[in-house]
Structures are given as structure tokens and as C-alpha cells.
Design goal:
The protein is mostly helical. Helix content is 46%, strand content 10%. The N and C termini lie far apart (55 Å).
Length: 493
Amino acid sequence: MNSKIRKILGGISLILSTLLFLDFTGCYQSWFGWMAKIQFMPALLSLNFIIIIALILLTLLMGRIYCSVICPLGILQDVFGWFGKKAKKNRYTYSKPMNILRYVMLAVLVGASVAGFASIAALIAPYSAFGRIASNILAPVYLWGNNLLAAWAESVDSYAFYSVDIWVKGGITLVVSVITFIVLFVLAYKNGRTYCNTICPVGTILGFFSRFSYLKPIIDTSKCNGCGLCARNCKASCIDSKNHAIDYSRCVVCLDCIDKCKQGAIKYVPRTKAEQAAPMGATADKGRRAFITTSAIMAGASVAKAQQLKMDGGFATIEDKKIPNRETLLTPPGSLSAKNFSKHCTACQLCITVCENQVLRPSNDWSKFMQPEVSYERGYCRPECTKCSEVCPTGAIKLITREEKTAIQIGHAVWIAENCIVNTDGQKCGNCARHCPSGAIQMVPKDANDPKSLQIPVVNTERCIGCGACENLCPSRPFSAIYVEGHEVHREI
């Protein structure tokens, strides 16, 4: 492999990974959904040992090629670094590894995972960070461009495109995404892969294995003239040109050093030659990193158009609905329980991206920070839709069929008499009963002694699946007269 092939593969990987978060049609997910499942942290949390072992073996063979070819956040940093390179060439310098910081960040990941706060770990997990950037910053721009094309197409009597809603799904998550984007841009613009080698826990884990990789870039001291071009172009700051040493735990195998060396003194060759050329001081503390790495692995074990707000009957003024005060937050069907979901979800936002019904949005609850939650102000969870379970790369949402979804009870409907227009306006309604897909809501006379009196809903909590059709289509504003209360543990009916 040379740097050109690496850049081409990395570019393809970045485009495909980004499209997963921009797609509102479902096409890209069906074609390239596997891109999310081969990422290290999602595979670790979902206990996908085949992917984990494959990535480790790949690292043992070629070094941290995952960081430069597969990880979208790593490749994105290369894009940022390219802008810095245009501003100033040969700007990098060798720096000693910041091992204490690396171990601390890995310990934070392990501790948060063991304690069940996967959302905290998601702040530093690379794929999750990239997902938030793509879904909260890049996706709105992409959708805006789509809407411009749709407007143009409509002006020429073409319907090749259609407009979609653009809305902020989570204010706090947007702020975190913007801050992450700025920090990454500044670090990469000035210092290349600083994040990968000081903060990223995946980089620390794979860095341990990359020290023993079969293929390595080595410096031929007989050809090296000490010009230092390799070090000044090393985005990982891992080449000590004065001592002819390379810190393989930080090397991301970009191979830029080979391209820049005018003497041909650096080659990507098997380990036997690397061991002959590499100084003893280039290795890191094996025992401490092996322990922490092992701990991290153990911790991982522990429709066409988005549905828009509708209203039947014209009984109320159309205004935005407010989120009801649920005692228990709703989690997607397939998540099994709130605890299981919180433990495995990394808040990558992929399920939010593919939700056609605009039901999923990031939570502002600190214990579930930025993790998706279900809410029905803009739509309801259609029984035939299982897309979130199909794309989840971590196992936080188990893959379920349409038939299985109709039997999963994520919550139950609760009627609020004082909000119902039957009581507030004296108007006949019945929206909740008409749209209930499980037949869990029946209309009965308000006055038991007068069969001709206005009817009110009665909920059969044993049949209700918590889809939210009743809550979403209730004409009462700003709070629905019927809402869904979540279940800590999902039930089967």
C-alpha cells in the first residue's frame, strides 16, 4: 500500500460513512449500512467479536490502518489538516507521547462503560463524535440543498426531488457537535492527528497492538541525511528524525513520510527489518497499556417524505405541541429496556437520522445525555417501520421484524381528562381511537347513564404498544389529552 491508495480508500470510506447520516430516503442504509457495523466502538459494545478480532488482526498485520482508512473521524481530521497544509507546509514537529492523558481518557471510557453511562463515553468515542457532526451540522446543509433542488424541479413541473423538514432535533446536542467540530478542526489544522493520539480511546487500544504489527515504516539510517522532512510532514508527530526512531503506537500508517523522503530512506516493510532498524527507546510501557487495554475490552462485554404534523377535524388551533412530563422516558422498540439501551448506546445519532417519522431525538436528560429518546410531537412510531433496529451498530437496539414490533410494548397510553376537547370544548372527537393500530382505545359514553352523551376514550393498557399515534394525532394543544408513559422494561403482548 502507498499513500495514494490509502487516500483513495480513506476518501471512499469517509463519503460512504457520511452518506449514512445524510440519507433521508433509506437507500444508502440498505447499501452501505455495514459501514457503521465495522467501526471499533460499535462492534465492541455490540460484542461483535468477529469485527473486533478482524480489526485487531488487521492492526497486527498493517498497523493502525483502521485509523487512516476506516475511521471517518480520523479521515475527517486529514481533511482539516489538508487545509492547514495549504497554509503552511512542513509544519509538524516530533512530540513525546502524552501517555498520562491517553490513559486517563481510556480510563474515563472504561469507567463510564462499567458504570452504565455510555452517553458520557460517547463524548470521546470517535464514531459517535463523527455521527453527531454529520447529523447535526452536515445533514441540515445537505437537506437545504435538496430543498433548493426540489423548489427548482417544481418550477419546471418536475417531481424528481421533494422537500423535507429541516429542524433542530436537540439544541444541546447541536452545541456539543459544533464545539467538537471546532476543536477537531483547530487541532487537526495546527497539529494533525492530535486527537487520535491523545484523546481517542480507540487509538490508544489499537496503538498497543500496532507496536507489534508485521508491516511497519522504517528508517534506513544508511540512506537518511537527517533533513527531517519526514518528521515535519508526520501528522501523528511520531517520527524522531534525530534518533531515527518511530513511535509505532501513534503511527497511523498514512505513509506521507515515504512520499516526502527524497532519499528513499523510509520503507513500509515486514517487522523483521523494522526490529533491526528501530531503537529500543521507541517502545512504550507494555504492561501498563496492556492492562488498561484489556480492561477496556472487558468493559465492552459488561417513507418517502418525513411525516408532517397533522390534525383531523379542525377542532383546535394548529400550534406546536409540547413534550409531556413522562415519568419514564421512552426508548425505541428493540432496545429491551432503558438500562440496556443506556448501557450500549453511544449516541452516534444514526437511528435519529433514519427515523422517517421524526420520532427520535437526542435526550437532554443528564443520565442519558444525547442518547435518542422517543417523543411524538412531530410524528408517531409506525408499527411497520423497523429502520432504527436495522441500522444500530452497537446492539443498543436489537434487530426486530415488523411482526415482532407489533407485539412489543414500550409504554402505554394515559388519558388526561382535563385536556380532552370533549371536556374543554364539548366537541365530539375520537381521533385517538380511530388511529390506534392495536385497537387498544375504545370510545365509551361520558355519562354512563346516557348512551347518547359525548364519548371519551378508555385505554386497554394490555393491548397498547405505546406507538404514540393517539398522542401525535390528538387535536388538543399545547399538550395532548392522551400521551404515552414509558416502561423501564419493554413487554411482549
